[in-house]
Design goal:
It is an enzyme of class 3 (hydrolase). InterPro entries: Formyl_transferase-like_C_sf, MPG, MPG_sf. One of its GO terms (biological process) is DNA repair. It catalyses: Hydrolysis of alkylated DNA, releasing 3-methyladenine, 3-methylguanine, 7-methylguanine and 7-methyladenine. The chain starts with 5 loop residues before the first strand and ends with a strand. The chain is of the alpha+beta class. The strands form 2 sheets. Strands 3, 4, 5, 6, 7, 8, 9, 10 and 11 form a 9-stranded antiparallel β-sheet that branches. Strands 1-2 form a two-stranded antiparallel ribbon. It is built from 8 helices and 11 strands. Helix content is 17%, strand content 19%.
């Protein structure tokens, strides 16, 4: 055709035209507003094929410049219009229509792998503790220590008996050791090396002088408080494997000595499930004691748990 406009595609607005031709399709005028007269634009190859009619044939313009009766199959919005539409939808609070996944759905919960939490029972009666330390020690495994929101499961203990060269009772009754000679079921807390608070459960009857040292525990509840008191942001066994760590996690001081562990409130020993297996071995750090007592297998631990202090290679099944 002469001096007419041939529309290559409606989708990409690509065309070949005479600039000085007057045409009712003002869609193309802004594109050539700055070009000099008598200048022809180059053909821009579209990314998509020309629009087709229902029969699959490409539609075209008539010689008068009017389109044929067959319109394009669909009309595509420009990226700018899409952006404006999305902005309006967001402004109106229709986050779902705007396609914003951050506003339409909450992030999936993070799944954490944790150990099974044992059921928390009642405080144990006083009679539970009024037995020989060698009998009480394995019975304390699996029981729970509670102070405020912190609950610990006892995983490792050591027994200290009368006439034991490693027991504090060997010095007789002093201001420091007097709680060891108290009634069974009371706490005995002493300071070790001027740093660590060591929690013991007094065993047997009043005046005997025997106790069970709590060497290790596993956390049941109050983990954030435990971590804060320990000054360690970890969930690994290093958090509670050692008697000084247990005392620190419970926030104990020597003022807790003589406290009854069978009464509600304060520091309590609660009932808990018995372990399936028990390990035994010699006690730790008592080289000053007689050879007989150094080698005595009076250390007890729950079999199969990582919440046991070092050394572990001296333990064997009971």
């Amino acid at each position: 055709m002469s001096r007419g406009i041939s529309l290559a595609t409606l989708r990409g607005y690509a065309f070949v035209a005479d600039i000085d031709a007057v045409h009712p399709f003002h869609l193309v005028r802004p594109f050539h507003a700055t070009l000099p007269p008598n200048t022809r634009t180059q053909t821009v190859k579209p990314h998509l094929s020309p629009p087709t009619n229902a029969a699959g044939e490409a539609s075209s313009m008539t010689t008068s410049g009017a389109p044929t009766a067959t319109p394009p199959r669909f009309k595509r919005s420009s990226p700018r219009k899409k952006s404006q539409l999305r902005s309006r939808r967001l402004a109106s609070g229709d986050a779902q229509a705007a396609g914003s996944p951050a506003l339409t759905r909450a992030p999936p919960p993070v799944s954490l792998e944790v150990d099974a939490v044992p059921p928390i029972g009642r405080a144990l009666p006083r009679e539970f503790f009024e037995v020989d330390a060698l009998d009480l020690a394995p019975r304390l495994l699996g029981k729970l220590l509670r102070r405020d929101e912190v609950v610990l499961r006892i995983t490792e203990v050591e027994a200290y008996r009368p006439n034991d060269s490693a027991c504090h009772g060997r010095f007789g009754i002093t201001a420091r050791t007097a709680p060891v000679f108290g009634p069974g079921g009371h706490a005995y807390v002493y300071l070790c090396y001027g740093l660590h608070m060591m929690l013991n459960v007094v065993a047997d009857m009043e005046g005997v002088g025997a106790a069970v040292l709590i060497r290790s525990c596993s956390p049941v509840s109050g983990l954030e408080t435990i971590q804060r008191r320990r000054g360690q942001q970890t969930e690994k066994p290093i958090l509670l494997t050692g008697p000084g760590k247990v005392g620190q996690a419970l926030g104990l001081s020597t003022d807790w000595s003589n406290h009854p562990l069978y009464t509600p409130g304060g520091l309590e020993v609660l009932d808990g499930p018995e372990p399936e297996g028990i390990l035994i071995g010699p006690r730790v750090g008592i080289e000053y004691a007689s050879p007989e007592h150094v080698a005595a297998p009076w250390r007890f631990a729950i079999a199969g748990t990582p919440w046991i202090s070092a050394p572990k290679n001296t333990l064997r099944p009971r």
